[in-house]
Amino acid sequence: MSRRSFIAGNWKMHGSAEHVEDFSRVLVDAAPSLNCDLAICVPFVYVERLARLLEGSEIAPGAQNLSHSVEHGAHTGEISGSMLADCGADYVIVGHSERREMHGETDEVVVAKAEAAVAAGLRPIVCIGESLDQREADKTEAVLKRQISALTSGCDRQTLERMVLAYEPIWAIGTGRSATPEQAQAVHEFVRTQFADWDATIADSLPILYGGSVKPDNASALFAGADVDGALVGGASLKSDSFVGIARAMG
Ligand code: 13P
Questions:
Q1: Separation of 78 CA from ligand 1 center, angstroms?
Q2: Which of 62, 85, 113, 128 is the most exposed, fewest CB within 10 Å of its CB?
């Protein structure tokens, strides 16, 4: 099965209206010459502006979080999946390690958010990955196994069919210390095998992105892995030239 390459940007809590405008202009011009699908996940307040600027292009707008609740109601400060869809979002990041660590998101919350995303017509980009302590204690596979089994046992089949997975080793995020291409491929293969134990067809078509200090100069080596279908890019997605450089590395 050939999976289409996919590069998604995660701006985290960065950006401004002007930055969204400038970035979109450059990306829309570059997109026709890039051989992969593209998405940019921006802070909530910029999603609608981004979606308007990307209209008519192949680039998908996205957000970085959503409420676990499908029902609208008394959830002060929360944003639902259908509100994001209203603003033009196609994707939403779910379960980023920063949300798991700083906002107490458990595997159960991640499942509920992935379900809520799909119920609203969005594609969830679900993040998994181990900490440095867990890797050094040789627990990487056990941690990933737990995170994946929460998804395969908790999510509907339709959610898993719509899901994009991002393997983001926490020790590689924002550190400048990317996983090596061999480490990334080994984990991606392990992740796909875990899904295959549950459903071979879904495993085969599941896009698995690598995230953690991806830059234009290490991207093509990382993308050489047979199970590395693209990247979820943090810092380097804030500058249009480095984001485009990473997308070009897809060949
Ligand atoms: P960096 O690319 O800045 O390491 O961040 C990765 C990330 O967390 C993307 O979600």
A1: 24
A2: 85
